[in-house]
Amino acid sequence: MSGKLNIQSRLAVLEPETDMLIKQRRPWDLPESQVTDEADFLNRRQIIAAGGGLLAAGALGFNARAQTDPSAGLYPAARNTAYTITRDLTPEEVNSTYNNFYEFGSSKSISKASQALQTRPWEITIDGEVEAEMTLGIDDLLKKVTLEERLYRLRCVEAWSMTIPWTGFPLSKLLEIAKPLSSAKYVQMQTFENPKVARGQLAVWYPWPYTEALTIEEAANDLAFMVTGAYGKPAAKQFGAPIRLAVPWKYGFKSVKSIVRFSFLKERPTTFWEEINAGEYGFWANVNPKFDHPRWSQATERVLGKNERIPTVIFNGYGEQVADLYSGKTERKYFM
Ligand code: MTE
């Protein structure tokens, strides 16, 4: 169904200068220090403060992107004040230069590499247990929805966090468009696959393409949000343009980027990180400070853009909206 590339075709796009296969760090090599140590991040902040920010902004083409994107006129969208936060927003230049997007490499500095991603044309396929399978372009999808801005927290499983002004539409609206059958119990979301552009996809030890999934009940929850923009304009490529998920009560790895396929399934699929290491990255991944990651504590989080560490809150503070989804389910598996 996913049309995964085999190893031969993946290697066929390797060019002589490519050494990513050797250099790329595998997730199970992640040292504890990388999770808790702020030095790396602070250094980057100092460089930005010293003037590198201008350079970075130019290289990322913040303004150019908004001018050339055919959906630029839809932004900024009205803020839905039902979704606000009590924390400061993470500055755009911080968020734009500290990302997880393994398709472009396993470091946090993939913003430049991700600019190679072409986000138009962008076709999205809806298939599986639905009334009628369909493929539609992102701009056709945008015509069927009303965009709104929501301020959301994001808590990464690596124990750092941000607060982001996302723009998009509820995932429940996509369910309305997709018309899943009653046999559909899960929705799987799949990222593009193109190792010619996304050189991280040359790393054959990862089960590309990146996929994530939610139960239909989770997908129908008001908080589950399809993101198409951020900071009042179309989403930057490093954020997962042109369309990504935001499920803020779950660890960030559930929020899959640059989606090309929504598959409605009867059975629970294995997700990207679960396939890599099910003991560390489970299907549910609900934020919980009481259940540590096997290699580090989840009790606190480092706030990006600020020199502080704050306590992590169950369901990342969204318990009121989502706890019902898991009522009676207190086992560890719902939190990993
Ligand atoms: N989606 C894809 N396709 N590839 C990825 O590597 N990383 C995930 C998630 N979605 C990832 C992805 C992880 S681990 C996190 S924490 C968030 O994206 C980070 O989103 P951000 O870079 O916008 O902060």
Question: What report would you give on this structure?
Answer:
With about 325 residues, this protein is of the alpha+beta class. It has one domain (about 1-335): Alpha-Beta Complex (Sulfite Oxidase, Chain A, domain 2), CATH 3.90.420.10. It has helices at about 5-10, 20-25, 30-35, 40-60, 60-70, 90-95, 110-115, 140-145, 170-180, 215-220, 270-275, 320; strands at about 125-130, 135, 150-155, 160-170, 185-190, 210-215, 225-230, 235, 245, 260-265, 300-305, 310. A hairpin with a 4-residue loop joins strand 3 and strand 4 (about 160-170). Ligand MTE binds near residues 101, 154, 256 and 257.
Features:
single chain; alpha+beta; Sulfite Oxidase, Chain A, domain 2; 12 helices; 24% helix
Radius of gyration: 19 Å
Fold-level CATH name: Sulfite Oxidase, Chain A, domain 2
Biggest sheet features: 7 strands, mixed
Counted up, domains total 1
What is the CATH level 1 assignment? Alpha Beta
Low-confidence stretches: 14-67
How confident is the prediction overall: mean pLDDT?
86
Element order, helices and strands? HHHHHHHEEHEEHEEHEEEEHEEH
Could you tell me which ligands this complex binds, including any ions or cofactors?
A: ligand MTE
Helical fraction = 10-25%
User: Which CATH-level-2 architecture?
Assistant: Alpha-Beta Complex
Morphology = globular
Instruction: Report strand %.
Output: 15-25%
Structural class: alpha+beta
Distance between the termini: 27 Å
Instruction: Tell me how many strands there are.
Output: 12
CATH homologous superfamily classification: Oxidoreductase, molybdopterin-binding domain
